Amino acid sequence: MTAPGPDLFAAQALLADGWARDVLFRFGDDGTILLATPDKSAGGATIAAGPVLPGMVDVHSHAFQRALAGRTERASAGEDSFWTWREAMYGFVLRLIPDHLEAIAAQLYVELLKQGYTAVGEFHYLHHAPDGGAYDEIAEMSLRIVAAARQAGIAITHLPVLYGYGGFGGADVGDAQRRFQNSPDSLIRIVETMRSQFSDDPDVRVGVAPHSLRAVTDETLTETVAALHADDPTAPVHIHVAEQKKEVADCLAWSGQRPVDWLFDNAQPDRRWCLIHATHVSDAEVARIAESGAVAGLCPVTEANLGDGIFPLPPFLAAGGVYAVGSDSNNTVSPVEELRWLEYGQRLRDGRRNIAADPRRPSVGAALWKAAAAGGAQALAQPAGTLAPGKRADLIVLDGDDIDLEGLEGDDILDTMIFAGNENRIRDVMVGGVWRVVDGHHAAEENAANAYRNTLHELSS
User: Do residue 149 and residue 236 come from a single domain?
Assistant: First the structure.
């Protein structure tokens, strides 16, 4: 890339209505796209190093789990599952302090940007001190998360988690869960603090995340969502649901209903909601999610790592469902990897190919990228996901010298980007009109890495 200028010229760019050539982008002082006009000359604009795409949206992250990546892959004496992994995660959580969390999150967010994510939904449930007591500032850990996002320059939707109980029907939390526990009142205090602190920052949104049906009751769920929307009717609501077969069985035993059915009968999710995982759903539940306009937040790499299962994508797409992808436990931080696994999981289960595509969108890569970016923007309530006037200037520039992209145009670029090789083909990344990654490097990467290394040493000692 040449020295950054006020405008950007791209020989090829994926705009809201499809690929265009010789596109001149102009950005506003507020970080939005003012113009995205095809068939122009470069003039004095910065010349993009390769094709330009909308940035991807990471709809679901637990930042602190980045420090666990690769460290839970030893077999135990019994049969390992999500539930045995959860116990290992709980043990790790007890050692984290605010400085650790901020360092881990900053490293993660730099990595996400370098891989092409320009916005992240942080599903944040690590609220309190190791003994479960509140910090002097009740939003201390949430403030650290957003501080890390601002250091990195990634847009964030912060989703403080309502976690009141240890199981369906209001069961008591366990000792390891006391760091997560909040009442609706205390959770809304965190939300209010975050809103007031970042009301002038267009790259920070705030919603809530009822952790799961096993961690809330009908009353606390209703109270929290009502309080959130009383002050911001557009605020997003995210929830884990139907991730594991045991969760479905426990919900049936408790309520006589499957989790998604219970949720729709009691909370009426709509376009403001994002249902994370929804792995084990019936045909009727698939239809209900799609009809509601709620986003299915899929995390294929984590779902594979934890042995969750495979989301039924074909009937969901047939019903017009909206989906997005997330890095979740952050074992990998690549949207390409998430989208590749999303498609490959379907192929392995169904024994056929090219499942995310359809006659209107025969390119699998293009169908995946465009749908996940737009669905993620909806789920995070952020003006992103497409390159069009009025949207935030969140974009990525591919490496025009990449040998696998040589001679490719249009959707062939995305097919190759997602399904050929393991190279990171992203060269430059812009968020809100600001270049955060240039020539593959982030200005804060060295400082973030040093702080992260020190944190790992402290935690391992």
Answer: yes
Whole domain around residue 432: which residue ranges? 7-54+387-445
Catalytic annotation, pick one of 277, 402, 411, 442: 277
Catalytic residue among 328, 399, 402, 415: 328
pLDDT tens digits along 438-457: 999 999 999 999 999 999 99
- Rounded to an integer, what distance in angstroms lies between the CA atom of residue 44 and that of residue 35? 15
Integer-rounded Cα Rg, in Å, for the chain is 21
Identify any residues that bridge with 158 across adjacent strands, giving them in sequence order.
Answer: 122, 206
CATH number of the domain residue 405 falls in:
2.30.40.10
Are 276 and 417 found together in one domain? no
Strands 18-27 and 33-37 turn out to be antiparallel
Buried b (16+ CB within 10 A) or exposed e, 32-58: bbbebeeebebeebbebbbbbbbbbbb
Contact 58, 373 (CB under 8 A): no
Measured N-to-C along each axis, helices 218-231 and 259-267 cross at an angle, to the nearest 10 degrees, of: 50
Q: Which of 124, 104, 112 is nearest to 64 (CA)?
A: 104
pLDDT tens-place string over residues 281-329: 999 999 999 999 999 999 999 999 999 999 999 999 999 999 999 999 9
Q: Are residues 93 and 143 both part of a single domain?
A: yes
- DSSP structural state of residue 88: H
> Which stretches in the chain have pLDDT values below 50?
1-4
Is 277 assigned a catalytic role? yes
Could you tell me the two tokens for 412? 């062939």
Residue 218 is a catalytic residue: no
Contact 376, 59 (CB under 8 A): yes
